[in-house]
Specification:
The protein is 69% helix and 11% strand. The protein has helices spanning 2-15, 20-177, 201-204, 214-227, 255-272, 297-300, 312-319, and strands at 186-191, 194-200, 233-240, 281-287, 302-309. It has a domain at 157-319: 2-Layer Sandwich (60s Ribosomal Protein L30, Chain: A), CATH 3.30.1330. It is of the alpha+beta class and 320 residues long. The protein has a five-stranded mixed beta sheet with strand order 1-2-5-3-4. Helix 2 crosses helix 4 and helix 2 (20-177) packs antiparallel against helix 7 (312-319). The radius of gyration is 76 Å and the shape is rod-shaped. This is OmpA-like domain-containing protein. Residues 108-173 form a coiled coil. Residues 192-311 form the OmpA-like domain.
């Protein structure tokens, strides 16, 4: 405003001394200056508004910059932390790889050991299976053999049972046949599957004699008659003496001869007075070496007729 007033004052002052044309030029210039001033004012206001806008934007941008710096710093810290973790992860990965290689190597060795152990176990299992099959085969063979043996045992038992029954029946038959001589020095008994007919010497012989007396001959004939129909027998006639020494220049010269000659005399009577098969008879002498009573010599002087079933069938079965 001061500038305009000064221009007007100057214009008035000069108006009195300058021409009109110049005055008009001055007015035109003044108008131009006013227009330009108006433009400048308008521009100044626009610039001030723009400046405020820019300042506002600048403040926003400054705040964004501060925030960005903070975020950048946080990101940097986070990056560095991640970088450290990454390096740590790389280091751990390398360590894991090394451990994995060791484990793989160890596993390979262990796998080789396990494979070797497995192969050994397979071989051992096969060996045991072969042994088991062999054992099963042997067991089957033994079972077959056992069955055969059980069958033979059953047959043996049957034969033994039949023989025992036959011996028992024969003992009864002989006992009944010789019942009249029971109190005359004759005894019949069964021992170990054999029949023993014991005849004391007083029933058969005179002292030192080998000739059978009449009463004794009856007993021997009845015994022979009782068994003459039996063919599956073995009969041993044994002569026994006492311990009194016998010495003679003629026969019998000693107890051995006496025991044998007495047994042969009994055998002769049995074969001459029955149809008994001579093949099942044998005569022997035992002298004084098998006494039955050391305190009674008379009991030791005896003839024992031992009747046993023939065991041919039994031995044949056993030999199989």
């Amino acid at each position: 405003m001061r500038l305009i007033f000064s221009v007007l004052l100057l214009t008035i002052t000069l108006g009195s001394c300058i021409p009109v044309k110049k005055y008009n030029d001055l007015l035109a210039k003044e108008q131009n200056c006013a227009d330009e001033l108006k433009k400048f004012k308008t521009s100044s206001l626009d610039y001030e508004a723009q400046l405020k806008t820019i300042q506002a934007r600048a403040e926003l941008m400054q705040r964004d910059v501060v925030k960005l710096k903070a975020d950048t710093s946080a990101l940097g810290n986070s990056y560095r932390a991640l970088q450290a973790k990454y390096q740590q992860a790389i280091s751990m990965g390398a360590s894991f790889e090394e451990q994995l290689d060791k484990i793989k190597d160890s596993d390979a060795k262990q796998l080789a050991r396990m494979r070797a152990d497995l192969e050994a176990k397979i071989i051992e299992t096969q060996r045991k299976e072969d042994a088991l099959m062999a054992a099963e085969k042997a067991l089957k063979n033994k079972q077959i053999l056992l069955a055969e043996r059980e069958q033979r045992v059953a047959e043996l038992e049957e034969i033994i049972s039949r023989q025992e029954a036959a011996v028992k029946a024969l003992e009864t038959k002989i006992s009944q046949a010789l019942r009249g001589f029971e109190n005359k020095g004759l005894k019949v008994e069964e021992r170990n599957g054999k029949i023993y007919v014991s005849l004391e010497a007083k029933l058969l012989f005179a002292s030192g004699s080998t000739k059978v007396e009449a009463e004794g001959k009856k007993a021997i004939i009845q015994l022979a008659k009782a068994i003459e129909g039996e063919s599956d027998l073995e009969i041993i006639v044994e002569g026994h003496t006492d311990t009194d020494a016998l010495s003679s220049a003629t026969h019998p010269k000693n107890n051995w001869e006496l025991s044998v000659l007495r047994s042969t005399s009994v055998v002769s009577i049995m074969t001459e007075n029955s149809t008994i098969n001579p093949e099942i008879l044998s005569a022997s002498g035992r002298s004084a070496f098998h006494p039955v009573d050391v305190n009674d010599k008379s009991k030791n002087r005896r003839i024992e007729v031992i009747i046993a079933p023939r065991l041919d069938a039994l031995f044949e079965l056993i030999s199989k």
